[in-house]
Amino acid sequence: MNEPRARRVRVQVRSVQFMDGERDETKLCASGMLLETADGVRVTYSHKDGGVPMRTTVQTVGNGLVTVTHSGGVRSHMRFEAGRTHQTAYETPYGVLTLEIYTQSVENRLNAAGGTLRFSYALLFPAQPAVHHHMTLTVLPPREEKTTGEANDVETDQRD
User: Which pTM value belongs to this model?
Assistant: First the structure.
């Protein structure tokens, strides 16, 4: 029996944030790796956030649980489970911020071939209005052309 092997993939991330009546959308395209695990699927990709190198690992556990781990300029381990609230520490160069994450929904359609993962959640800060997020992670086969090793593309779009 063969051990599962990581394979190269293209990762597209679309994040829509709603805060104080404002909508902010960010799109990220990166090269990454996908590995089917005993629990689900793990996708790892590197990107830059404000010029700071970051590494993100997304792990699905069954159909209803997702963990997202960031390392680099910001460090965190977040847990998203529909209908549940989890507390996490968000470590930045400016200090540690403790916050709660309430997950409204998780739609997992990832498998060894790729697919899509969607989840919606609210970040709950002490004495502040909730910040609502809708995240879509799409995993596709790698492009045929050779990669240059250049920084990945990130777009932001602010709309009223």
Answer: 0.83
